[in-house]
Structures are given as C-alpha cells and as structure tokens.
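Q: Is it fine to ask for two folds in a single conversation?
A: Yes, each is treated on its own. Send the first.
Q: Here.
A: Result:
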Amino acid sequence: MKILNYTISPGQTTVLNLEIAKLHTASSLEIPVIVSRGKLEGPTVLLTAGLHGDELNGVDIVRQIVHKKINIPKRGTIICIPVINIFGFINKSREFPDGRDMNRVFPGSKDGSLAGRFAYHLLKSIIPLVDYAIDFHAGGQSRFNAPQIRVAPNDKELEELAMIFQPPFLLYSNQIAGSFRNACAKRQVKMLLFEGGKSLDINKEVSDMAVEGVKRFLAHFNMLQDNFGIKEQAKPTIIIEKAQWIRSKRSGLLHDQVEIGSFVEKGGTLAEISDPYGMENIKIKAPFSGYVINVNHSPIVYQGDAIFNMSKTL
C-alpha cells in the first residue's frame, strides 16, 4: 500500500504526517495519520475524529483504539486519524480559523479556503484507499448526544454494519451536502457516523461504548486480533426513523429532569425553566412519547433554544 508517498508493507505500523498549512507563526502543523497493515490481505477501515475541533469525545475514542493496539489488524489495513481539524483542536473551536465548518465544505478545493484545502487533500490522499469508515462526533454547544450511529436510509449494508456495532440507538439520517459522509458515499466508501457526548468534554461511558463497538465492527471482517475479547451490548439497539427538537418556551435557568436515552411518555415533565428571581417555574412537557436522544446541558437558555431531541413515531 502506498499512502502519502510512503509504502506500507504487510505487518507494518507507521505514523505519517499530512501537512497542508502552517500556523500564522510559520510553525509547521502536521496531522498524524496512523497506518497499520495486517500480514494478510483484507479491507481497509478508516477511523476518524476531530473533524470539529472541539468534539473531544471522538478524539478520545480513536486515541483509545490506538493506545490499546486495537488498530493493529489481523488482516487488512486500519488507518486512524484522531484529529482531522488540528487548527480547531488547538483553539478548542468547532471551526477552522477561516470560520468554516469543515463538515460543510467537502469535496473542497486545492486552491480554496483553508478548510476546503484540508477536505480536498483528505479525499485525494486517503479516501481512495478506504473501503469502510467510522467518523466519530459529539454534540455541539453543550448538547449531549446519547451514543448513536447515523446512517442514510435505504442502505441495507450500512444498516447491517450499524447493528454489528450495536449502538444504543440507530438513527436514519439523510446525507447532508458538503459533509464528509456524503463525500465518502459518492466515492463508494461505506461510512458509519457515530455521535455521543458533547463538545469540550470526554465522557468515559460514551468512549468505552464506542471502543467496544469498533471491536465488534472489526471482528465482523476478521480484522480484530484474537487476544481482544468482545462484549455484547446488554440491550438491543433501538431504531429511530424520525426525531424532533423540543424548544424552550421561556428564557431562563434550565433544570433538566430526564436522563439521556430514557423513554418519556406524552405529557411527562422533561425540565423546568425558572427566572433567576424565584418568581416562576415553567414546566416543559413532552408533546409526544419517545426516547430522549439529546439533552441541552446549558444552565441558561433563551426562548426558542433547542433543549431536547426526542424520537417520534411516524
């Protein structure tokens, strides 16, 4: 296998550096790309995180996979990129320094914006080698996502792979123009999108759950080394075809009253919103029955803010 102008031999693990731009201080900024080939031929799996620089839970998941040597395959090749948006990671920011969301600029351009150039080189240098991918994300702006896999509807292979991963929730989610997932789909790369946790936070339960899911995914292709055990999820995956945001009716202090991932009956209390002077408490009730798959952890909300995302029966 030849990647980034380096030849990787069977049984070899190496760290390559993808350098596209420098900091404004003229210091080099490199993106480590960890490539590990098994001694036997097999598929190539890409594990990525940090497309949004402040989504640290995904970074921790891929970090664990490398640290525990789960990325050294029995067969095939595993490519790990723990941090794609290295600029955002340094600044603890979702976007690139040019203000762009990299997950909306694919396929990018070699002469375009900074984010667009990164997108272009990622697709040009890495994706042509890849058969399957898992991209790890977290909720933004204090919104905590229940661990979930998102796949495009009507793709049976992706649905089967998601069920092999065994997330607590499987969501059908249409492709978004300019996204990494959409760009991979157009290039016949089967990608699972993992969501779990929130930005600027590392949740151990979410990370451990995702690592176990990756082990099950790799074992399906006979890529997982025999010394790694596999744990089955205690509960079956819940499939969600449609979800809806519940928005705040008032501005004020938000007091959540439901756990992430729990089922709430129609009319059940989700939260209370109070003013800071003790004059009123407004209850936010579920307008329909469903699972709570995202909770806003911000202590202060404004009228119209999205505070819960719930599954909704079609």
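Q: Second one now.
A: Result:
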Amino acid sequence: MHFKNKIVWITGASSGIGQELAIQLAQEEAVLILTATNELVLNQMKQELKNTVVHVLPFNLLDINAIPDLVTTAISLEGKIDYVIQSAGISQRALASATSMDVYKKLMDINYFAPVALTQAILPYFKERNSGNITVISSIAGLIGFPLRSGYAASKHAIKGYLETLQCELYKTNLTISLVYPGRINTNISKNALIGNGQQHGATDENNEVGMEVDVCVKKIIKGLRSNQKSIIIVKAERILFWLWWFVPSLYYKIANFKGLHNK
C-alpha cells in the first residue's frame, strides 16, 4: 500500500473530508497526526482507528503566530513527516454587501494565512530532505466565483495562487504540492459556514445534500495523491458550470445568479 508507514499529518481532522481522510488512510496503515480544535473528537477517533498509530495534536489554526512551534512539535512526534494534508477551513453564506470585514478577515485567516504559515514553516524541513508532499483542500470556488461565497472564494483563489507559485518554484525538486478542488460534498460545511455577521449558518444547503458522498470524494483524493497530481478536481454536475464559465461566460453568470440566489 502506498501510504503504509508514511507519516501523514491532517489538519481539520475532526470532521468532513479531514475526518474521512484519517479513516481511509488508517486503513492503508499510514501513521497519523490529527489536528483540530476539538480534542474530544480527535481522541475518540484515536480510539476507533485501530489499524495504525495515531497522534492527537489539538490546535486552533487562528493562532497563526504559534504555527511554527506547532510544526516543530508535529515533526518531533515521529521524527519525520511525509505528507501534510491541510483540510481545515470554513465557508460562507452571505451576500458580499452584507458581509462584515471581521468575517472576511476570519475567512482569510483560516483558509489562506493559516495554510500559508504552516507551509512556510514546514518547507525548510521538506527542502532539507528533498521529499514530502503538501496538500491543501480547496474548493471549486477556488476556481470560479459563486453567489454568497465572496470571502470564501477569495481565500480559496488566494491559496491557489500561492501554491501554484510554489509548484513552479519547486519544479526541479522531489517536493510535491497538491491542490484539491471539491464541488458539492455531503458534509457539514454549510452548517458551519459564516453568515454576514459572523454567526454560523446552521443549516444544510439543499445542494450539499445531493452532493457527492464524502467517502467517494476522499477515495478520489487519495488516488490523486498516489499519482502526485498537482490539481485534483472532484466534481459532478459542477463540471457543467465550470465548462460554461470557461467557454460561455455570459451563460455561466446567468445560471450562477439563479442557482446561487434563488435556490438558497
């Protein structure tokens, strides 16, 4: 198995894609380091993941200045790290004009500055070893804008720009950078999303309920990582919107407006 005995560090590991990644990678006998703010859930996962070694490393990624120390601690747990999969993130459900600057800042801190800080801190270690993989779970909103996601899309576009630049800079090394662009996945992302005043949305989008099951999404992610794919796009019907955005933009904006604002 490709991931057997590999040291894989997952942030955002207590729910959604991050949690399912932990489950499936444990089945492949990877050694896991799990990070999230919810230490209770992480410890429960450790008890349930019987096939491998699991380290619990709770942390709030909003504490960006402490991330370099977090990276040092993570490396010390097994003496090395092979994969860093950054799945922590938060979405948005509010019109751009109704979103406060505090919400925009929080979205950028979690979705952009935290993964940048973690990547910057672990890069010297990977460069010294001339090996390692950094993966960030982005979103189809990191490729195209969509109503009610202005700050979310902006943060995901930003991390795309940063990581694609790294992909160019590291081209002649053995380091790999992977960006994952899921479409609608059946997780709690919409429940946990921020509305304009910073409170949680608290409801599951109808679109999410008909989205791809999270275990299917994660199987596709793992398949992409095995082959060192730089971009892993995981979409169903969203593929049509992406095609329209590329080839018939006027029609894309019309449909996105309708889907995003009338089917809330």
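Q: Anything structural to flag on that second result?
A: Two points. The chain has a mean pLDDT of 92. The beta strands are 7-11, 31-35, 54-56, 83-86, 132-137, 175-182, 231-234.
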